[in-house]
Amino acid sequence: MLDGLFLKSRDFVALNNQAYKRYFIKTKPLEHRLSIIIGPRGIGKTTTVAQYMRMHYKEHEALYVNLDDIGNTSQFSMGEIAQEFVLHGGKLLCFDEIHKYTNWSGELKNIYDRFGELKVIATGSSALQINQGSHDLSRRAIVYAMVGMSFREFLELHYGFALRSHTLEEVLEKHVEIASSIKTTVEEKGNKIIPLFKDYLKYGYYPYYLSMPNETLFLQTLQQNINVSIESDLLSVYPKLNGNSIKKIKMLLSVIIKNVPFAPNMSDMKKAADITDDRTLKEYLCKLDDAGLIKLLMRHSLSMKSIDKPEKIYLANPNLMYTKEPDIGNLRETFFVNQLDNYYKNKQNLSDDGIFASKSGDFYCEEKYTFEVGSKKKSFEQIKDIPSSYVASDGLEVGIGNKIPLWLFGFLY
Fold first, then answer.
1. Residue 201: partners with Cβ closer than 8 Å, 6 or more residues away
2. Among 117, 102, 113, which residue's Cα sits nearest to residue 141?
3. In this predicted structure, what is the pLDDT of residue 233?
4. CA 407 remoteness from chain centre
5. Which pLDDT tens digit goes with each residue over 51-73?
6. What's the rounded Cα separation, in Å, for the pair 107 and 177?
7. 159 with 373: CB under 8 angstroms?
8. pLDDT digits (tens, 9 = 90+) for 219-269
9. d(CA 153, CA 367)
10. Nearest-10 crossing angle of helices 78-87, 104-114
């Protein structure tokens, strides 16, 4: 049984063991016996698994199994694969695309309980709910949310820079010093930070862009990822959805893409997507948010996405904005929301706390920082009397006072 799996596993590691290592593999030790990595399609989960296998285990000690390949038609279950692997001295078993396997939660529970000497890493869709499978894994598994590339990582991967990340507090307090240093480093290689930032907004969030021959094909694969996330991943995670539900979710996303970012009018959205009630609309919005396709910006940390109306709706990252011609103001806000949201996910792991809609400015973070996002000419007029308020300015290489270059918020992870 294992011979064919080992051959595929060896080929997988050789193909996906890329030289550049993202923030995740540098900051997440994956020490627990059962680690589950969730995240949207195309952000590098599979590559991270290959790198971890190569870094920490000998070839015969680690096995990679893609459950999308073997699915539910395989003559061997996940548990049977684990049992055979342990008998042959296996130490690390990696399951990819676990949401494609019907009883994944029950199988992982049994593997965890039966094989105390075996370490398991599993990856799955960002919509995966570990406490809502057939078996609750919340007491057994450590779940990590992996996100797309930051602007900092884009510069490292595409141009070979070595740049460190900074906390939000460091950016707010020392932004002039930090931005000046980064600017100097970038210019020493004959580049300018603003043009590179514009490139990032267009294609820098997904590592696989480098394997694409041009931007046109990249955008085509991005559209394909959107379709697969809805038509395949959501159906796997939420089997009660049907063809009609998926059709309406796609219609809803189409409405959102044409209008983002916007304060939603629930009646208009229901009509446009042929949805009859508020509860179903909020459910579908939550599923798109869970899938990593949109970001529901709420009023405060007590708001519940499944119950409360979002204050504003964004696409999940700036690259998705280029599925149509983006408005520059909307693009700026989408970048800011995405990078801050990812920062808090990394900091708190799986928590949506952190960035919210502000009554006075554009955004409110940690219940103390207020932000306005705009061009280089953006003033403080709207937030001048608010403590701990800042302007994130696009087109600015180095800031001054409480005016911070927008691109610098891409150095938070």
1. 318, 319, 321, 331, 335
2. 113
3. 94
4. 19
5. 999 999 999 999 999 998 876 55
6. 51
7. no
8. 999 999 999 999 999 999 998 999 999 999 999 999 999 988 889 999 999
9. 28
10. 30
Long-range contacts of 70-75 (CB under 8 A, 24+ apart): 71/100, 71/101, 72/101, 72/102
Q: Are strands 355-357 and 312-315 parallel, antiparallel or unpaired?
A: unpaired
Tell me what pLDDT residue 232 has: 93
Rounded to 5 degrees, what angle do the CA atoms 203, 144, 66 make?
75
Contacts of 401 (CB under 8 A, 6+ apart): none
- In angstroms, what CA-CA distances link 148 with 151, 186, 339? 10, 22, 9
pLDDT tens, residue by residue, 360-412:
999 999 989 999 999 999 999 999 899 999 999 999 999 999 999 999 999 99
**Residue that is written with structure tokens 């997507």 in the block:** 273
Q: Which residues lie below 8 Å from residue 155, measured CB to CB, with a gap of 6+?
A: 161, 163, 186, 196, 200
